Amino acid sequence: MRNKKLITWLIVAIAIVFFLLLLRTLQPASPVPAVTKDVQTSTVTATVLPSFTPVPTLTAEDVSCQRPYSDSSIWNIPIDWSIAKIHPMSDLMMSAFFESHDWIGSDTTKYTPNMYWVSDSTPLIPVQLLKNRFRDAVNDQQLQFGEPASVVWMPLPLEARPAVGTDGQLVVINVDTGEEWGLNEGFVDDEGNWFASGVYRYHIENSGIPPDGFGQRGAGIGQLAGIVRRCEVDRGRIDHAVTLAYDYPCEEEVCLQNGWPASIPPFRKTDGRGISSYDLPEGTRLAIRPDISREQIVETCDGIKGCVVWALNMQEYGGFVVDNSDHPKTYAEGDATAEWEPSVWTRNMLRNIPQDWYVVIDWDHPSTEVR
């Protein structure tokens, strides 16, 4: 009898344990604490996120060749040659543009950003600012500043390095969030510590024209805007306006004396220092005349694919003057990440394009369709 009772209690105990285990497996998972960072103070705080069903995330391959910024961005609207007008002083302005050198350079070994793609799992690396404040542009209207010479925690792959040259530029795109991170005058010391003069955060779904006070590049834009990427040339289509610089866009007083804006809207600022009567304001849009045939472009480019793709894109989208440079130049992804081959892109591939192919688009008249 006693043995029969013992067996009964043992069966009951086993049933209770089994029931408790089953109940536990059916309960929802507890919220997971996520580490977030206050970008202004660089203090780490813990936030409890609600449970959610994971959704598929994009990979670097998915987004690396998507053009950044909204479809209505000035970078992404092609020139409408049925309404666009060439500026009446275009010839004089282009003469000023080419005063020191008679061709547009395209060097990618320095003074142009290396580009990297990261995710939320990429480690945050401290970057010590040497003088400037961190700029955080969450949208195109609001800009937040960090403290001067503070530390900014930035997602950086272990192999990442700023571009060669005193500009030390670098761009990072987070494929999980769409954040665009950039730095300038960056370097890594012998112990692996990161330093930079400036660091910013922006978003690739914004307009490409950050709010007042952003100031990463001359016309007040980030490092990514207008950069020609290796994948764009490989596919044969850039599909957005490019960036240009020369020596030098007009300084503010000279622009105003000519009756021109110091910078052409929607660009918000200038660092121009040109004093020639016909030096261009930053934000000016240049283009290659639409009557130039593809056959002429291919012949002039002498088989270099990047030259052909860039010139055709200059007919469709043009390029914006956004910075000072020692000579006329356009910007493409740095060699360290693009790995350009001579058959694809070279520093002097545009030198045979005649000056009279280039024109200045009149900023006083509409040149694109409204989107």
Task: Chart the SSEs and their pairings.
Layout: H1 2-26, E1 33-37, E2 44-48, H2 60-63, H3 90-97, E3 114-118, E4 124-129, E5 135-136, E6 144-145, E7 151-155, E8 170-174, E9 179-184, E10 187-188, E11 194-196, E12 198-203, H4 230-235, E13 242-246, H5 252-257, E14 285-288, H6 294-301, H7 305-316, E15 319-324, E16 329-330, H8 335-338, E17 358-360
Parallel strand pairs: 3-8, 4-11, 5-12, 13-15
Antiparallel strand pairs: 1-2, 4-7, 5-6, 8-9, 9-12, 10-11, 13-16, 14-15, 14-17
Helix pairs in contact: 6-7
What does this structure look like?
By secondary structure, the chain is an alpha+beta fold. It folds into two domains: 76-112 and 227-371, no CATH class; 113-225, no CATH class. It is built from eight helices and 17 strands. The longest helix has 25 residues, at 2-26. It starts with a helix and ends in an 11-residue tail after the last strand.
